[in-house]
């Protein structure tokens, strides 16, 4: 079936193509009578204006390119949901792709988004070098989520990772745990503040911090537990794990179960993000909540301010996380 065109709408409504264009751009120069006729004709034909063509014609773009670091991680799905809500409210349209946690692939993904000549781009936890982000910001507004920047041309939205990790340690120590290990996020840009918060909290309680390098994936969480099983004997095995994120924690829990260790009876586990995965009844993961929907909304609103209000000063949003206690933490047996 042939897609209806602006010319088809004009013919059905008995007006010029130029008038249809004015209506589609919501121009105040059109009378209500003619506006109604054009919109009725468009509805009858099933006509939808082409977003990119409309942007090119007006020399402004309502398209927002969104690059997601890892499509398998439900954290990003929750953030994008908030972005979608805010985009609808602000008249923006999202297009998404992913770099699959690879700097080389992210470069290609970013160039693909920029080829659409978007009004701006939002990068969710990118592993791109800072120079590539600055280059993109020279072409259009850029917002980073779960990554910091010192560039005045780049806005950022993050949570307080140091506080979040400290909340996890505080909770476990209050339950009586002393052997608490951090399974960290490796090269992820959210990992250093969480690692720092864990280490500082452990030192505050006079406890020895132990950090196991990992990544924000379930496979890496499982691998970290297998490494712990090789390092520690059953008598001094950690009684609690603070994992880099929920995805990592689920992998760790699976590996603990395979080793015959029960959660939380033998080992307590705390995640980070409070994704929809953590809230599943059979997972019921104690975790640190990032307000994911609000993060997504703030990212879109920051971009809209750059586009619509000509703001040039950078926005640095840092949100406060909170502890969500579920079923994967309990007092230690010893």
Describe this structure in words.
It is a single chain. The chain is elongated. It is α/β, with parallel strands linked by helices. It starts with 5 loop residues before the first helix and ends in a 10-residue tail after the last strand. The longest helix has 17 residues, at 74-90. Strand 6, helix 9 (191-204) and strand 7 (210-212) form a beta-alpha-beta unit. It has helices at 6-13, 17-24, 32-45, 51-58, 74-90, 103-114, 130-137, 161-175, 191-204, 218-231, 246-258, 276-279, 292-308; strands spanning 63-68, 93-98, 120-124, 142-145, 154-159, 180-183, 210-212, 240-243, 268-270, 287-289, 316-319, 322-324. Helix 10 packs across helix 11 (246-258). The protein has 13 helices and 12 strands.
Can I get a quick summary?
The chain contains 13 helices and twelve strands. The chain is of the alpha/beta class and 334 residues long. α9 links the parallel β6 (180-183) and β7.
Pick out its properties:
334 residues; alpha/beta; 434 Repressor (Amino-terminal Domain); Rossmann fold; 3 domains; six-stranded parallel sheet; four-stranded parallel sheet; 12 strands; 15% strand; elongated
């Amino acid at each position: 079936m042939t897609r209806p065109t602006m010319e088809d709408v004009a013919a059905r409504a008995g007006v010029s193509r130029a008038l249809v264009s004015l209506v589609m751009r919501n121009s105040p120069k059109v009378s209500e009578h003619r506006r109604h006729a054009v919109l009725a004709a468009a509805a009858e034909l099933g006509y939808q204006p082409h977003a990119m063509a409309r942007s090119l014609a007006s020399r402004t773009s309502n398209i927002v390119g969104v690059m997601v670091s890892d499509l398998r991680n439900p954290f990003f799905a929750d953030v994008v949901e908030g972005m979608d809500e805010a985009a609808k409210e602000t008249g923006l349209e999202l297009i998404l792709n992913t770099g699959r946690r690879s700097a080389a692939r992210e470069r290609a993904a970013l160039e693909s988004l920029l080829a659409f000549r978007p009004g701006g781009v939002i990068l969710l936890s990118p592993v791109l070098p800072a120079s590539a982000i600055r280059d993109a910001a020279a072409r259009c507004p850029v917002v980073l989520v779960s990554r910091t920047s010192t560039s005045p041309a780049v806005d950022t939205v993050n949570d307080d990772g140091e506080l979040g990790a400290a909340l996890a340690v505080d909770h476990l120590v209050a339950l009586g745990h002393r052997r608490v290990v951090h399974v960290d996020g490796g090269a992820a840009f959210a990992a250093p503040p969480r690692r720092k918060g864990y280490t500082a909290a452990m030192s505050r309680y006079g406890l020895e911090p132990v950090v196991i390098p990992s990544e924000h994936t379930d496979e890496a969480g499982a691998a970290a537990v297998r490494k712990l099983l090789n390092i520690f004997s059953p008598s001094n095995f950690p009684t609690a794990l603070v994992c880099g994120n929920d995805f990592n924690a689920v992998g760790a829990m699976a590996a603990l179960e395979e080793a015959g260790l029960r959660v939380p009876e033998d080992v307590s586990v705390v995640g980070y993000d409070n994704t929809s995965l953590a809230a599943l009844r059979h997972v019921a993961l104690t975790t640190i909540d990032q307000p994911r929907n609000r993060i997504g909304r703030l990212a879109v609103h920051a971009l809209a301010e750059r586009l619509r209000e000509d703001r040039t000063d950078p926005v640095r949003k840092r949100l406060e996380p909170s502890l969500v206690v579920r079923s994967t933490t309990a007092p230690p047996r010893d």
